[in-house]
């Protein structure tokens, strides 16, 4: 898995590519913590190049959300695949995450 951080005027974008699973989910948590988000800032997690996500990956996304909320910033998941949307829907997490086509 690779995580690429790209600041934009609208948000800090973390692009996640590859497999988000038990072997590397902690890297996503760390990337979010190291983002140093000021209050009100938007963190966009781009999942457009995500090829697989297991329960550890879902847990990492929840941890990222909890961190973002704790620093009074905002989170959006973008470019979420149909399969990932279905997983988020089945778990009720589509009601927890702001999911958009683009940041």
UniProtKB/TrEMBL annotation:
Gene3D superfamilies: STAS domain. Coiled coil: none annotated. Signal peptide: none annotated. SUPFAM superfamilies: SpoIIaa-like. It holds the Pfam family STAS. PROSITE patterns: STAS. One of its GO terms (molecular function) is anti-sigma factor antagonist activity. Residues 1-103 form the STAS domain. Belongs to the anti-sigma-factor antagonist family. NCBIfam families: ant_ant_sig. This is Anti-sigma factor antagonist.
């Amino acid at each position: 898995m690779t995580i690429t951080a790209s600041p934009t005027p609208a948000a800090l974008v973390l692009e996640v590519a590859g497999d988000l699973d038990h072997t590397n989910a902690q890297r996503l948590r760390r990337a979010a913590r190291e983002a140093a988000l000021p209050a009100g800032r938007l963190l966009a997690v781009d999942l457009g190049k995500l090829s697989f996500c297991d329960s550890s990956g879902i847990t990492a996304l929840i941890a990222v959300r909890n961190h973002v909320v704790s620093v009074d910033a905002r989170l959006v998941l973008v470019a979420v695949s149909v399969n990932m949307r279905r997983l988020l829907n089945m778990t009720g997490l589509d009601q927890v995450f702001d999911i958009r086509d683009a940041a």
